[in-house]
């Protein structure tokens, strides 16, 4: 079966750095997405990786290793507004998105 | 502001009743999707449409139907609601089909079936 694994919850301190991991086992791979979802709101797009390596976008970076079936989202200079769930999703060989359950990130002052 | 509008925002429904969740987008996107989100689970695709006039089944289509009469509207119908359909429903769209593009989501419809 297809599977996306992310930690259920993480806690970090304002101003610090946090890394949210995502491992996947899917039938084929056509890219990996990260979305941010604040409580009670819609998910919003953060990043898309299809090639190995690091993609940096401001305070957020996303890394992909296809050979390891692994990605991480790196958040720097954490702000209170970064408290949210972070969803990892993989596009499989049929171009269907397979979603992880999400990682709830709690930022403490 | 351009985007996706869902209605209703929240609804309590008796089991056995018929319910249609509305979704309208003004971005002229080709592809539209309906997902459900349940606690502890990832988003699960119910139905999708790659372009007006076509629809397809997702991971959990049973008990749901959709139509895509035009580019902008993609309603989701529960013919006879059951308690297991209690969930938050998200409509989404993307510029292209094939899944490689960014998804834009509506604000969600919280449905409770009693």
Task: Give a nutshell description of this structure.
The complex is a heterodimer of chains A (109) and B (114). By secondary structure, chain A is mainly β.
How does this model look, in words?
The complex is a heterodimer of chains A (109) and B (114). Chain A is mainly beta. Chain A is 0% helix and 57% strand. Chain A has strands at 3-5, 9-13, 18-25, 32-37, 44-49, 53-57, 60-65, 70-75, 84-91, 97-99, 103-108. In chain A, the strands form 2 sheets. In chain A, strands 2, 4, 5, 9, 10 and 11 form a 6-stranded mixed β-sheet that branches. Chain A has a 5-stranded antiparallel β-sheet with strand order 1-3-8-7-6, with no helix packed on it. In chain A, strand 6 and strand 7 (60-65) form a beta hairpin. The radius of gyration of chain A is 13 Å and the shape is globular. Chain B contains no helices and 11 strands. Chain B is mainly β and 114 residues long. In chain B, strands 2, 4, 5, 6, 9, 10 and 11 form a 7-stranded mixed β-sheet that branches. The termini of chain B are far apart. Classes of the chains: A mainly beta (109), B mainly beta (114). Chains A and B meet through strand 5, strand 9 and strand 10 of A and strand 10 of B.
Question: Radius of gyration of chain A, Cα only, in angstroms?
Answer: 13 Å
- Sheet with the most strands, sense and barrel status of chain B: 7 strands, mixed
Query: Helix proportion of residues of chain B, in percent?
Result: under 10%
Structural class of chain B: mainly beta
Regarding quaternary structure, what we see is: heterodimer
* Contiguous runs where pLDDT drops below 50 for at least 5 residues of chain A: none
Mean pLDDT of chain A: 96
């Amino acid at each position: 079966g297809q599977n996306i694994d992310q930690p259920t919850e993480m806690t970090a301190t304002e101003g610090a750095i946090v890394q949210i991991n995502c491992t996947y086992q899917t039938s084929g791979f056509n890219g990996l997405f990260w979305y941010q979802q604040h409580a009670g709101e819609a998910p919003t797009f953060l990043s898309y990786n299809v090639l190995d390596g690091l993609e940096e976008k401001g305070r957020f970076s996303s890394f992909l290793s296809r050979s390891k079936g692994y990605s991480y989202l790196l958040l720097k200079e954490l702000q209170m507004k970064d408290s949210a769930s972070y969803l990892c999703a993989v596009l499989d060989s049929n171009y269907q998105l397979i979603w992880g359950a999400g990682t709830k990130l709690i930022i403490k002052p | 502001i351009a985007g996706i509008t869902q209605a209703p925002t929240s609804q309590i429904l008796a089991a056995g009743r018929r319910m249609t969740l509305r979704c309208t987008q003004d971005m002229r996107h080709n592809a539209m999707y309906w997902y459900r989100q349940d606690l502890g689970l990832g988003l699960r695709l119910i139905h999708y449409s790659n372009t007006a006039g076509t629809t397809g089944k997702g991971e959990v289509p049973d008990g749901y139907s959709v139509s895509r009469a035009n580019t902008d509207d993609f309603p989701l119908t529960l013919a006879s609601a059951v308690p297991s359909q209690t969930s938050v429903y998200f409509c989404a769209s993307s510029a292209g089909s094939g899944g490689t593009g960014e998804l834009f989501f509506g604000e969600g419809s919280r449905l409770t079936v009693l």
